[in-house]
């Protein structure tokens, strides 16, 4: 995604743009708006104090002369998908989200699976009316569906069983593949999150296709078992179709992560070698071990780093999160706005 450079000294900012700029500024110490107000929301701009402070900060920037380099880091959307069930999608989405939040990322986990395992895995009740269902059918805003969790910087859009109905309801609706993308746009624009992870259902139905249409990248967990690669070729085909049809031209496989690895079995090693042989660099170095603690943690509504901090599986997800961050930073979709020095 090419983001045009903005000359801050000349740009006329309307209020939402100004807020998005201030929220997303990553590397410019002068832009301390977040420190003053916390994440800004479009709704808060009406407060005159906020408006004048934003304007003041931007003016200070304008006047600071020299070279202004503002790194605008757009919110990334990663869909966690694999049409096979039980391969570790939800476990990966929940634990990756928690580990990234623990190291300072502002993370939103969007639970798009009617089974709502990510919702309960983060300690939230499945509550009628809390899911994205109505928004996907055109009522209300996804911003109002965001719920906080017990974990700092980690928020969630919960799911519940009503999402089941979306497939049928949307099947003949207009723009039915872009409902999630459209609904997520104001969330992206709000600048509240560095990363949005979407936990997909175990199928290639309308919900998953919507997630793929909305995503910048696709994270595919695969289980260290026979037939591990079976799903990938189908997923790849769908990806190509979505790109070719113009539904989401920027979509790519962000990475493949091997889950439920059992180092004691020959099978796990064979599968790992085969997957690495076929998919090469796209496979993350970190492998998630099979662990009963990981399977237990959701029943306590906690990600592994909060359930059993010193376990091997907590360490695995922490290392995996670092690898994900490196990969995100190595192809940043850099909205770098550089204003030349005068
Ligand atoms: N690394 C792991 N070790 C042990 N059990 C795991 C591991 N990852 C996932 N599980 C368990 O396997 C089952 C399926 O995992 P889940 O993440 O729900 O898969 P999916 O979302 O792909 O259907 C769950 O009961 C989960 O607790
Ligand atoms: Mg799941």
Q: How would you characterize this protein structure?
A:
With 342 residues, the chain is an alpha/beta fold. It folds into two domains: 58 residues, no CATH class; 255 residues, 3-Layer(aba) Sandwich (Rossmann fold). 40% of the residues lie in helices and 16% in strands. It contains 14 helices and ten strands. The strands form two sheets. It has an eight-stranded mixed beta sheet with strand order 4-5-3-6-2-7-8-9, with helices on both faces. Helix 11 links the parallel strand 8 and strand 9. The two termini are 28 Å apart. The N terminus and C terminus are likely disordered. The structure holds adenosine-5'-diphosphate (ADP) and magnesium ion (MG). The site of adenosine-5'-diphosphate has 16 residues, from helix 4, strand 8 and helix 12.
Summarize this, please?
This protein is an alpha/beta fold and 342 residues long.
Number of domains: 2
Major beta-sheet overview = 8 strands, mixed
Question: Structural class per helix/strand content?
Answer: alpha/beta
Average per-residue pLDDT, rounded, comes to: 81
* Beta-strand content bin: 15-25%
Number of strands: 10
Order of helices and strands: HHHEEHEHHEEHHEHEHEHEHHHE
CATH superfamily of the largest domain: P-loop containing nucleotide triphosphate hydrolases
How much helicity do the residues have? 40-55%
H/I helix tally: 14
């Amino acid at each position: 995604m090419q983001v045009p450079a903005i000359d801050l000294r000349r740009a006329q900012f309307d209020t939402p743009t100004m807020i998005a700029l201030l929220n997303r500024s990553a590397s410019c110490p002068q832009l301390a708006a977040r420190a003053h107000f916390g994440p800004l929301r479009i709704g808060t701009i009406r407060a005159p104090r906020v408006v004048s402070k934003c304007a003041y900060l931007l003016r200070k920037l304008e006047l600071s002369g020299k070279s202004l380099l503002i790194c605008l880091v757009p919110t990334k959307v990663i869909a966690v998908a694999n049409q096979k069930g039980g391969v570790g999608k939800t476990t990966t989405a929940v634990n990756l989200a928690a580990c990234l939040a623990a190291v300072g990322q502002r993370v939103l986990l969007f639970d798009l699976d009617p089974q709502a395992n990510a919702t309960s895995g983060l300690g939230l009740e499945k509550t009628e009316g809390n899911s994205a269902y109505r928004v996907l059918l055109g009522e209300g805003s996804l911003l109002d569906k965001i719920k906080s969790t017990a974990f700092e910087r980690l928020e969630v859009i919960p799911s519940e069983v009503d999402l089941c109905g979306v497939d049928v309801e949307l099947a003949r609706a207009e723009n039915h593949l872009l409902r999630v993308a459209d609904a997520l746009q104001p969330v992206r624009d709000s600048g509240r999150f560095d990363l949005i992870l979407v936990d997909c259902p175990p199928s290639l139905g309308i919900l998953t296709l919507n997630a793929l249409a909305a995503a910048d990248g696709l994270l595919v967990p695969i289980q260290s078992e026979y037939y591990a690669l079976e799903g990938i070729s189908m997923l790849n085909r769908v990806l190509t179709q979505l790109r070719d049809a113009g539904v989401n031209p920027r979509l790519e496989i962000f990475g493949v992560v091997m889950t439920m690895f059992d180092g004691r079995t020959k099978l796990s090693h064979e599968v790992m070698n085969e997957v690495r042989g076929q998919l090469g660099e796209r496979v993350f170095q970190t492998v998630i071990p099979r662990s009963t603690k990981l399977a237990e943690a959701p029943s306590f509504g906690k990600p592994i780093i909060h359930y059993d901090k010193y376990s091997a599986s907590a360490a695995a997800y922490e290392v995996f999160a670092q690898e994900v961050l490196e990969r995100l930073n190595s192809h940043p979709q850099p909205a770098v706005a550089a204003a030349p020095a005068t």
